[in-house]
Amino acid sequence: MLTKEHIKEVKSKGNGGIGHLVKLYRDSSSISFILENLGHLPNDFDGSFLPDLLQHKSSNVRLWTVKTIGKLSNEDYLKLLKKVIQNEEDTTVRREAVSSIGRMRNPKAKKYLFEVLNDNDPKVVCQAIRGLLVFRGDKDVEENLQPLINHQNEMVRTVIYKEFFATQKTPSHQPHTESFDYLKNVIVNGDTIETMKLLQDESVHLTFTSPPYYNARDYSIYPSYKHYLEFLRDVFQQVHRITKEGRFLIVNTSPIIIPRVSRSHSSKRYPIPFDIHPYLMEMGWEFIDDIVWMKPEASVKNRIGGFQQHRKPLGYKPNSVTEYLMVYRKSTEKLLDWNIRQYDWTTVKESKVADGFETTNVWKIDPCFDKVHSAVFPVELCKRVIQYYSFKHDLVFDPFGGSGTVGKTAKSLDRYFFLTEKDESYFGYMQSKKSNGMFDEYPTKFLSLKDFHQTIK
After folding, report:
1. Which superfamily, per CATH, for 181-455?
2. Staple partner for 49: which of 19, 264, 310, 355, CB 3.0–4.6 Å?
3. Is 0.85 topped by the overall pTM?
């Protein structure tokens, strides 16, 4: 019976034993199993049986053959791997062949990797770049890699930019884990863009907000959809500036319908989340996830009623029970691990998400309704976002504060909050809730824009 222990025993005896074992088991699954479980190979390993396996009908056998050749670090195999790259039809095998050349870390491999830089498969090119970066500082390597900053593929450009062209970032005014005291638990009654202009770069850890819908509420009237999108662009441009390196922006929004003027005209549906997205990408936000917030059908406006009556094709209009939480991260060359390592062990431990967290990108949460504000965040929605995308004692920002749910929830989760709200009635509503336990656990400041400006001088 073919087992891992048997393969290990045969390998230890040497003398081409693995080659004989492969000939004994001719089916592709057995051959793949043998190659997959070879583990580390000694310098004197007899790999003479491997070239023939590169012609095997099974792509999985060819893949593990290439992986095994890469373990041998024998420059005699370089030309063989080059042929695999040139002639192999399976893209995964081709990429592994490039990876095997790179893993050899042999200076003679450079010329083969240089040739691969012109390949049509961006993933193959990235594997070649990875292999060549082992020889960092080599003049020929730099001369071949740096021109790829103009490569047509965005992943290739990103790698080259990080390795050769990224400028040293100006140090922040404060440690990554901290925020300015004048922003902690503050609500400003003023225009959010004008307020953000007063803030220093990299001041907040997380922004979670639901922008006002285009001309769907009395508090959000714009002369045109273009003006609306440009307003949001300007808001999120400022949010990008004040967000700490590598941290998150979550935007809750959905397509909306502007009712028709009369029965002789059509209503208009605007895909807000999809139209905002290109602006966000262009200004330096990296798209991470789309989370769908699903509501009970009974809680949304009925659009399907007419179709239920006539059932005529073209007239189908489903009830809209979803909104989007579009998740973005401020672009950086640093990985998420860097952000996490900025925190002490105790903070990381205390911030860990408890059992029962959502495992899919569809969140079923009932909406909230309020007499004062017509579009209130459910607390459960806020809890998930704040717990999943921030640490304890981080600063959470909402540029459209509304009824203050983000602030209230952030505080209950041991985070600080900073809110801006232009509408005086909503600002007054938040103030009225202070005495009812909404903001009284820690001191909260309710400031006009002028007063806020004075606190940061």
Report:
1. Vaccinia Virus protein VP39 (3.40.50.150)
2. 19
3. no
